[in-house]
Design brief:
The complex is a heterodimer.
Chain A lengths: L5 H21 L15 H27 L1
Chain B lengths: L7 H22 L5 H6 L6 H12 L2 H14 L5 H24 L5 H8 L2 H34 L3 H50 L1 H14 L23 H4 L11 H19 L1 H8 L4 H17 L1 H4 L1 H10 L15 H14 L4 H17 L16 H11 L10 H16 L9 H9 L4 H37 L5 H26 L5 H25 L5 H21 E3 L15 E3 L2 H26 L31 H18 L2
Parallel strand pairs in B: 1-2
The chains are: A mainly alpha, B mainly alpha.
Chain lengths: ~70, ~675
């Protein structure tokens, strides 16, 4: 089928991860926001995890495309 | 429950997700040429994609909401649904059954039954499956809309229709392929969206050991927190050991089941019946690009499935542990009061202003319960009383009796009313276990993560709904419409019908959602429906695939008898604490089980044995209608043994299956 699902997955998580991480960075000096999450800046940390996952998916997509050509 | 405010970022994440799933539907649209592309995706998808879709289609509302609810109610024993039930069944499907499903070129599970037996078996199975799928979908959607209503204060009806519309768009555009591809995306969304919530919860209770300790306190005296009736007590490991309380007997574990019902009823009958014959999941494997990929599909799916208890059952256990720790200021949410119950509560509390609040409490409970649960027409009393902490309720009555809680014209009045409803609900000692997941998300997620977790929730509901709809439209189009209503039409006609019935299926699911609105724990109901329809079915497949002498008449009457037997069994038995009616015992109560779970598992065992016996006996009494030649590729003994493709031995399905089973045994031993 003409769609490699790794591309949309990679794009979506890269985008969401970047948004979360940037928001986490911007709010790093607002500890009251993170009272709920036990004082951990989860947006920054988890945003970076999602970003890494998204980029991994995109990398797999590019490599898959190269090898199929 | 207080609503949480979603920030701009939360809505942005939600929107990105919706754009991507709809986008996938539109991209795939141009590959759709025939009804087969739309309904069976033309057998073109790689194994890792179908594998993750296999698991994701099952990961609907029932899984996230229901499993967390069961985790809270029954503790780690809920893992039996995975480590005794699902994994062995998935391995069996991959090794023994997939070759027949895929090799027979059947387009659906009912169609396989037609090839193996005859039209009657197919008709019975496809009608039963179609009805069941719609109900499963409806229950899932109802749960979604109810949660969105509680979490965001969204309108129940708007939430229901909007989510259905999103699913409709991407299934209609891209068909089964689109459903499968979005399910993979949803799989990652669900895992990555909920993992941080579970992590924060576990960290908050103080880690695994602290949680175990808190749960053993609950297990020894569950009535202290109103988890069970007064006087109930289990050993300290009631919530935290999967096997020891089970082996001790049905009165020693919160699930109230014995070992036979668990291993035979759930592990063998229900799980094999679900995972090996339910077209919703099998359809994913049948869409794989070749036989090897089809057989690897359930095996690939089994790996995440084995680890899912950490994501779906653990939150329930965390919630119970948190509830038992006063310092954490958390409780499993109370059931949400219906509009008429709130009106009754307001009126009753206002009336109490004239008298002594303490003395008014029993009457308030009567009135609110009557409005919430309905009134018995014979006695004029509520059908079932809600549980309240009477002292706390008296306090709330005293506080609010002379305040203007009856009006909701101005903003202040509405705020006061909401405050009253929250305080009033909080005095309830009943729990809405389905609210566990949601309440944890609200407790731990700041804006940002909140949007992600909410999107994960939506993703799970959408994947479940899309799974049901794609299975339903295939069974309707090929097994009912093409077979009985309009045979010999052009493929374009069936393509059109597939699309039309996708719309109809979603509308019917919405109708079922409204129907399901009145039930509390969705999981128990769904298990019951599976008990009626699926439990006897596995006997039919087992005999069909492994016993060439089985005849169409035997299978049909056996299946029919099995389904009737389960209905009869249900009408004669009841679970302790339920009154005769929709929960069973409507003819007479011959047998009382300690819990609904036990009733369901025994029902399944009974239905299976009835169907098995009837099929064997009637087959032996009737003449075979299919020759050995016709059954080639459909029955184990008549099919040339499948040569595993020239793959390394460690990649063969049998090897992978054994490894998975070994992992399962290890998990069972660790959490015994």
């Amino acid at each position: 089928m003409g769609l490699d699902i790794r591309l949309p997955i990679g794009l979506m998580f890269t985008l969401i991860g970047a948004m979360l991480a940037i928001y986490g960075l911007a709010t790093n000096s607002e500890p009251e926001l993170y009272g709920r999450s036990l004082g951990i800046n989860v947006n920054l940390r988890w945003g970076l995890v999602l970003l890494a996952f998204g980029i991994t998916m995109l990398t797999l997509f590019w490599r898959g495309r190269k090898s199929s050509q | 429950m207080q609503n949480v405010q979603l920030g701009f970022l939360d809505y942005a994440i939600l929107l990105i997700y919706v754009i991507f799933v709809i986008g996938i539907g539109f991209v795939l649209r141009r590959y759709l040429k025939s009804s087969a592309d739309f309904l069976t995706s033309g057998r073109s998808i790689p194994a890792w994609v179908t594998g993750l879709a296999f698991i994701s289609a099952n990961l609907g509302a029932l899984e996230l909401v229901g499993m967390a609810a069961s985790g809270a109610k029954y503790g780690i024993a809920t893992c039996h649904f995975y480590w005794v039930g699902a994994i062995p069944a998935m391995v069996f499907l991959a090794i023994f059954m997939m070759p027949f499903y895929y090799g027979s070129k059947a387009r659906s599970v009912p169609e396989y039954l037609k090839m193996r037996f005859d039209e009657r078996v197919r008709a019975l199975n496809s009608v039963a499956f179609a009805v069941m799928t719609l109900f499963a979908s409806g229950i899932s959607m109802n749960a979604l809309a109810k949660l969105l209503n509680q979490l965001l204060g969204w309108n129940y009806h708007v939430a229901l229709w909007i989510c259905s519309a999103v699913v409709l768009v991407y299934v209609l555009k891209g068909g089964l392929t689109s459903a499968i591809y979005t399910e993979v995306l949803q799989f990652f969304m669900i895992v990555l969206g909920f993992a941080p919530v579970v992590y924060l919860g576990l960290r908050d209770v103080g880690g695994w050991d602290a949680m175990t300790q808190a749960l053993s306190g609950v297990s020894v005296d569950p009535a202290a927190l109103h988890f069970k009736d007064p006087g109930t007590s289990y050993g300290p490991n009631g919530w935290t050991s999967a096997w020891q309380p089970l082996l001790a007997g049905s009165s020693h574990n919160p699930m109230g089941v014995d070992c036979f019902a668990m291993v035979f009823g759930l592990g063998f009958v229900l799980s094999f019946g679900y995972w090996c014959t339910n077209f919703l999941v099998v359809q994913r494997a049948m869409a794989a690009r070749n036989m090897g990929a089809a057989r690897r599909t359930p095996l690939i799916a089994a790996v995440p499935k084995m680890l899912f208890p950490a994501l779906v059952i653990l939150p329930g256990m965390i919630a119970v542990a948190l509830t038992s720790m006063p310092a954490k200021n958390y409780r499993i949410p109370p059931p949400s009061l219906e509009k008429q119950a709130i009106v009754a509560a307001v009126a009753a509390v206002k009336q109490a202003a004239q008298s002594d609040p303490q003395a008014a409490v029993p009457e308030i409970i009567q009135k609110v319960s009557g409005a919430q649960k309905g009134v018995d027409p014979k006695t004029g009393k509520p059908k079932k009383l809600l549980g309240f902490d009477q002292a706390k309720l008296a306090q709330v009555v005293k506080t609010y009796a002379d305040k203007p809680i009856g009006q909701d014209q101005t903003k202040e009045q509405r705020a006061l009313r909401a405050e009253f409803v929250a305080a009033f609900s909080n005095t309830m000692t009943d729990y809405d276990y389905d609210g566990v997941i949601l309440s944890l998300v609200k407790k731990y997620c700041p804006t940002g993560l909140l949007g992600l977790a909410l999107t994960a929730l939506l993703a799970s509901f959408m994947s479940g709904m899309a799974g049901n709809v794609t299975a339903f439209n295939t069974v309707w189009t090929y097994d009912l419409y093409q077979a009985y209503i309009a045979p010999n039409k052009s493929d374009q006609h069936y393509f059109w019908m597939g699309q039309a019935v996708t719309v109809a299926g979603i509308l019917l699911s919405i109708a079922c959602a409204y129907f399901a609105k009145q039930y509390n724990n969705a999981m128990d109901i769904i298990q019951l429906v599976f008990g009626f329809v699926n439990a006897p079915l596995f006997a039919t497949f087992l005999l069909g695939m492994f016993w060439a002498r089985g005849t169409g008449t035997g299978a049909f009457l056996g299946l029919f008898g099995g389904i009737s037997a389960s209905a009869l069994f249900h009408s004669l038995t009841i679970a302790a604490g339920n009154s005769p009616g929709v929960k069973g015992g409507y003819l007479a109560v011959q047998q009382t089980f300690p819990s609904e779970m036990a009733q369901n598992f025994w029902l399944a065992s009974f239905a299976f044995i009835t169907c098995f016996t009837l099929t064997v006996v009637i087959s032996l009494l009737t003449r075979r209608t299919k020759t050995n030649e016709e059954l080639k590729g459909l029955v184990y003994s008549l099919t040339p043994k499948l040569k595993d493709e020239a793959k390394a031995w460690y990649l063969r399905p049998a090897t992978l299956g054994l490894v998975l089973l070994a992992c399962c045994v290890v998990l069972n031993i660790i959490f015994r």
